[in-house]
Amino acid sequence: MATLLHIDSSVFPAEASASRVVTEAFRKHWQEEHPQGTVVYRDLAAQPVPHITADTHLAGFTDPATHTPEQAAAFAERVKLIEELEQADAVLIGAPMYNYTIPSTLKAWLDNVILMGRTAGETQSAKGTPVTVVASRGGSYAPGTPREGFEYVQNYLNAALGAGLGLEVDFIVPELTMATVNPAMADLVPLYEASRDRALEDAATKARELAKRLAAA
Fold it and tell me: What sequence ranges are listed for the domain Flavodoxin-like fold (predicted)?
């Protein structure tokens, strides 16, 4: 049985969040295709993980036998997150764009799971694990658009998840999500609707294909 690690980071709940709508669709189709599979879920908005502290950082580079009680406690939380990643057969991440980049809660999760000598560097203990990122955004930062140069979500996550952790990264990008609430974007509503529908279709297709691939492995 395959395990899907599902991470959401939007501050908005359920239908109010474009990324959560798509990750929920992905998860639903994955479970329908692979009902024997397991889902491990983390809502980083509801239950943020600890930010890296000096104790957490130093504990990652020193012998556990020398850890102070504070270092041991902090590192234990970090190891739990790392083990969840290592034990996952696939990862699903909701990564809405906030102020041109990812939510700070998602960055905190990445800071915890990227550990040189284990998940990063020459070892990359989760290398090859497929990760699907739902990178929603209120506007459009696609190539050729005026704000192309402000795209720091896909670029960053390609580096952190792909180069850093060695994961197999794939994106679903619902864009123009503010069109229905921002009067200045009213003319873009049809483009938003097309992007939303395409994202949901992509979620269904990618989830089913991934579930079949894992079930056959």
Answer: 3-162
75: CB partners within 8 A, 6+ apart: 55, 56, 59, 60, 64, 67
Contacts 24+ apart (CB under 8 A), 107-111: 108/44, 108/48, 108/49, 108/50, 108/51, 108/52, 109/7, 109/9, 109/42, 109/44, 109/49, 109/81, 110/160, 110/161, 111/51, 111/52
Is 142 annotated in some ligand binding site? Answer: no
Instruction: Confirm or deny that 118 is annotated as ligand binding.
Output: no
137 annotated to bind ligand = yes
The Cα 145–Cα 15 span in angstroms is: 27
User: Per the annotation, does 198 bind a ligand?
Assistant: no
Instruction: Reply yes or no on whether the pLDDT at 111 is more than 80.
Output: yes
Question: CA 111, CA 59: separation in Å to the nearest integer?
Answer: 14
Total-model pTM? 0.95
